[in-house]
Amino acid sequence: MSETVDILHRIGVTATPEAVYEALTTVEGLAGWWTEDTDGDPAPGGVVRFRFPPGGFDMKVLEARPAEHVRWEVVAGPEEWIGTQVVFELGQEDDCTIVLFRHEGWREPVEFMHHCSTKWAIYLMSLKKLAETGEGEPSPRDVRISNWH
């Protein structure tokens, strides 16, 4: 079996783990930091649909432990994303919630993965802003970095 590669990020959010968890597990929260065009069932076993100007993704919610952990599996979207998993681990450090993010299981580090790594960082900063101020910068109001958006 060949090894896979992962996108990894870490951010500190001046908000409670419960507030960050809510932003990861409600349609309103997800639409507040990732893309305004979000719908579906964010409960474990449900599928959430995220749409962006160039396309979108459907994520099956595999796990959701309140204020601790969220795991999705990509079930529809770009070929490179199908079967990969997106994981958010939440921990407390002083007055911060530490978010350890992984987009794991990429078959190879193609150019699109480089693009997605940068975009995930932008969206994680949007998550931070949403949790701290009540206002994120989801698509289509996010920073555009290329013609892939």
From TrEMBL:
Pfam families: AHSA1 (PF08327). Residues 15-132 form the Activator of Hsp90 ATPase homologue 1/2-like C-terminal domain. SUPFAM superfamilies: Bet v1-like. It comes from the Bacteria. Belongs to the AHA1 family. This is Activator of HSP90 ATPase. It comes from Kitasatospora phosalacinea.
